């Protein structure tokens, strides 16, 4: 690949991460991010607004820090209610919001800027692994226009930070094993701690590193194993304060995680998620690919050409791993193979053994996907290298490389213009629902789900009135409003309106999350 082509791809990667950053729906997970950085808890919001009629601005004051809340409240809220989310990103986001404001653009700009650090990091990792600048540049190109990484770069969550710290920790390990100096192992210990404070699943990355060191040292208690053990112990000790909170308060993913899902449905989701690293099949569909809450998965039509492009991507991934294992040194293929399998098999194994659908979440597989991208970069770098093989084969593989990168560019270009996308899951149709509400003259929106209401509020016009009904009695008459909607009401609340109010409750949207009271 020419330097000019790499430069163009690099610029595209930056543009895709920053353009239209506020366009997609600010979905419920991002609303939780803003809740945490504000220092408020759900219980506090419910206590203050339950039964009251408020406007959008009043509701969103609970999405931003104020003089009564500080970073200590952010950490406490995470520790008590979401300890599975390590605090580093949320602390950073708290101060970022205090400095630059609380808009969707500002909240998403932090992870977008963090994601740019993944580009030099993956290049550095390629130098440590392959000692090949060409492989590093191809890895940068793949990461630049990866639909998956671009989508999560524009998500106000910690996944960009987790990507960076995973790469840094991997670089630090390989560097420490190469240099074997005290300072290099101290640096590795620091990156272990940073990785764990970025995301709890980093424990799997750390376990993978341990397996790698032990295998490379042929299961001997060597100096390298001893130094690795000390450095890891240092990183874990630094993480103990948060680990203690995780153990004390437990991890609660929600009822969706344990929902029984047929194996065939899970496998389809795994393949969709994996292909999104290089090509996003959502560009050919107007409906969500799948939703872990409703269980409604898209029925794919195998006459659709995009399905076969997805299959081609999966074939390239499979061949890349095979080529890597056949042609690279043991220290190289073993590292990447462990990176892919240890993290990837944990949620898959949980679902296969315990049941559930945790493995449907693509974001849990970030280290696994990085390993796959490294394998593909190694394959393409070797095949297009002018010193390897015949010229005709080189040209064919150049075409493959350009096709894979072009698929990523096309995917990112189309998704950047969308209001919603597959990774918004249960909020996929929220823009359509908000549009229905905004068409009304003086609408009232009633809900029993505070965080769903908060997420919806980002798309509503200022004239919309909101009312949370959680424990209070609902009003009987709405004469001051032109239209009254129920948004994701609990079954109990909807039943009360159907049985006790003078209104008929009619679906206002096809997914029946939005209902309208009709006289």
Helix content: 55-70%
- Identify the quaternary structure here: single chain
Low-confidence blocks of residues: none
The mean pLDDT is 94
Structural class, from helix and strand content? Answer: mainly alpha
Supply database-style keywords.
mainly alpha, six-stranded mixed sheet, 22 helices, 5% strand, globular
Provide an overview of this structure.
This protein is mainly alpha-helical and 519 residues long. It is 62% helix and 5% strand. It is built from 22 helices and six strands. Helix 21 (450-457) links the parallel strand 2 (443-447) and strand 3 (465-468). The protein starts with a helix and ends with a strand.
Write a short abstract of this structure.
The protein is mainly alpha-helical and 519 residues long. It is built from 22 helices and six strands.
Protein topology:
Elements: H1 3-18, H2 28-38, H3 42-49, E1 53-55, H4 56-60, H5 71-81, H6 88-100, H7 104-116, H8 118-130, H9 133-144, H10 147-153, H11 159-179, H12 182-198, H13 202-216, H14 223-249, H15 263-275, H16 305-327, H17 330-354, H18 366-384, H19 391-415, H20 430-438, E2 443-447, H21 450-457, E3 465-468, E4 483-487, H22 491-500, E5 504-507, E6 514-518
Parallel strand pairs: 2-3, 2-4
Antiparallel strand pairs: 1-3, 4-6, 5-6
């Amino acid at each position: 690949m020419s330097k000019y082509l790499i430069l163009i791809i690099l610029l595209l990667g930056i543009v895709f991460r920053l353009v239209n950053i506020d366009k997609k729906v600010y979905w419920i997970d991002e609303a939780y991010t803003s809740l945490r950085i504000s220092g408020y808890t759900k219980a506090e919001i419910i206590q203050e607004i339950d039964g009251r009629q408020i406007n959008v601005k009043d509701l969103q004051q609970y999405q931003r820090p104020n003089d009564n809340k500080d970073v200590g409240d952010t950490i406490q809220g995470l520790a008590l209610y979401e300890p599975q989310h390590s605090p580093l990103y949320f602390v950073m986001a708290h101060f970022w919001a205090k400095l630059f404001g609380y808009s969707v653009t500002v909240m998403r700009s932090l992870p977008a800027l963090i994601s740019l650090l993944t580009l030099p990091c993956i290049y550095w990792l390629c130098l440590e692994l392959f000692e090949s600048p060409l492989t590093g540049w191809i890895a940068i190109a793949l990461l630049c226009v990866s639909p998956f990484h671009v989508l999560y770069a524009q998500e106000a969550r910690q996944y960009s930070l987790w990507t960076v710290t995973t790469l840094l920790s991997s670089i630090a390990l390989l560097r420490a094993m190469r240099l074997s100096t005290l300072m290099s192992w101290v640096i590795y210990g620091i990156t272990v701690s940073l990785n764990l404070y970025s995301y709890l699943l980093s424990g799997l990355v750390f376990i993978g590193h341990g397996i790698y060191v032990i295998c490379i040292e042929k299961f001997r208690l060597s100096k390298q194993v001893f130094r690795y053990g000390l450095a890891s112990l240092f990183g874990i000790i630094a993480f103990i304060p948060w680990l203690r909170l995780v153990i004390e308060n437990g991890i609660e993913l929600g009822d969706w995680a344990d929902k029984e899902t047929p194996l065939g449905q899970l496998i389809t989701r795994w393949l969709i998620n994996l292909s999104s690293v290089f090509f996003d099949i959502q560009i050919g569909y107007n409906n969500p690919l799948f939703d872990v809450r409703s269980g409604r998965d898209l029925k794919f039509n195998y006459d659709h050409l995009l399905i076969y492009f997805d299959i081609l991507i999966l074939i390239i991934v499979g061949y890349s791993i095979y080529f890597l294992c056949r042609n690279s040194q043991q220290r190289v293929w073993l590292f990447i193979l462990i990176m892919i399998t240890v993290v990837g098999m944990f949620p898959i194994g949980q679902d296969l053994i315990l049941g559930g659908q945790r493995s449907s979440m693509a974001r849990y597989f970030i280290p696994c996907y990085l390993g796959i991208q490294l394998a593909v970069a190694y394959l393409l770098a070797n095949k297009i290298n002018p010193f390897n093989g015949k010229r005709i084969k080189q040209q064919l593989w150049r075409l493959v490389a350009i096709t894979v990168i072009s698929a990523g560019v096309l995917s990112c270009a189309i998704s950047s213009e969308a209001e919603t996308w597959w990774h918004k899951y249960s909020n996929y149709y929220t823009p359509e629902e908000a549009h229905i509400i905004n068409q009304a003259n003086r609408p009232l929106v009633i809900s029993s789900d505070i965080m769903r209401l908060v997420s919806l509020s980002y798309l509503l016009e200022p004239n919309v009135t909101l009312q949370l009904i959680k424990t209070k009695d609902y009003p009987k008459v709405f004469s001051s409003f032109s239209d009254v909607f129920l948004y994701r009401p609990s079954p109990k609340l909807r039943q009360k309106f159907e049985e006790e109010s003078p209104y008929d409750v009619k679906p206002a949207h096809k997914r029946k999350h939005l209902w309208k009271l009709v006289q």
